[in-house]
Design brief:
The chain is of the alpha+beta class and 240 residues long. 21% of the residues lie in helices and 35% in strands. The strands form four sheets. Strands 1, 2, 3, 4, 7, 8, 12 and 15 form an eight-stranded antiparallel beta sheet that branches. A hairpin with a 2-residue loop joins strand 3 and strand 4. Helix 1 crosses helix 5 and helix 2 packs across helix 5. The longest helix has 17 residues. The radius of gyration is 17 Å and the shape is globular. The two termini are 28 Å apart. The structure holds fe (ii) ion (FE2).
Length: 240
């Protein structure tokens, strides 16, 4: 576990981001207690519609929860709105957005706990000692982006952006009948640093949010007659 973590951490420290292979993430999560991935993944079938889409889109479903994350463990915080300033999200930011809470079962699921433990193990040591908080304010988002023949699904309608946090993990949970959805990474001057597509469950992008922008291209259905969607788990960590 430590060797894999170090390798990923080194990449993030050097490049500002890293693409993590499914097998590597699986190894890390197994050590952290991953169980019942299938049950965890199935919880994406029960997400609420995102009603705060400034582009009028009805293609994004989500649930949200906040946690306190520290060496002492994981504590769920009372349900609260998600807030991004307009500096970070000119499209949908600037207001408190209330989303459906992540269910109790999902919030305490061993897969989610394994992901949160792994995020702490990866990101906390990457944080300079002088700026490291005792407890990380951590937000978890379950997202489903639906693609239809008449409406492409936009994973990041705000375009290339930063989340306004310290660290970000984007993990693919499931891709069903969609093409594209390519993740792009730019430096702060807008120069492309990397591009990849999360295809397999557990494949992840880890991002130093202070150093790079990220964005994902729209997803389209491969077979327009069938349901098409992209499910991801996003975890952000910031100083409280
Ligand atoms: Fe983002």
């Amino acid at each position: 576990m430590t060797e894999k973590l170090h390798r990923i951490g080194d990449a993030v420290a050097t490049e500002g981001f890293s693409f993590v292979e499914s097998a590597d993430m699986q190894g890390l999560l197994d050590v952290a207690g991953l169980r019942d991935w299938e049950g965890f993944s199935a919880s994406w079938d029960d997400l609420g519609l995102d009603a705060f889409m400034a582009d009028g889109g009805r293609y994004r479903r989500r649930r949200h929860a906040a946690f306190a994350l520290s060496a002492d463990g994981i504590r769920r915080k009372p349900h609260q709105p998600h807030y991004q300033s307009r500096d970070y999200n000119p499209l949908n930011g600037g207001l408190e957005r209330w989303f459906e809470p992540i269910t109790e079962a999902t919030g305490t699921h061993p897969a989610l706990e394994a992901v949160l433990k792994t995020c702490f193990a990866l990101f906390d040591p990457l944080t300079p000692a002088g700026t490291k908080p005792e407890v990380w304010h951590t937000e978890v988002h379950q997202f489903r982006i639906e693609a239809r023949a008449d409406e492409a699904g936009r994973p990041t309608p705000e375009g290339m952006h930063r989340d306004g946090v310290d660290w970000v993990l984007v993990m693919l949970v499931r891709r069903e009948n969609v093409s594209s959805g390519t993740t792009n990474i730019h430096d702060l001057a807008g120069r492309p640093l990397g591009s990849f597509t999360l295809r397999q469950p557990l494949e992840s992008a880890v991002v130093d949010d202070a150093r790079v922008f990220h964005g994902v291209t729209p997803v389209e259905p491969i077979d327009p007659a069938r349901p098409a969607f992209r499910d991801v788990l996003v975890v952000t960590m910031r100083r409280p």
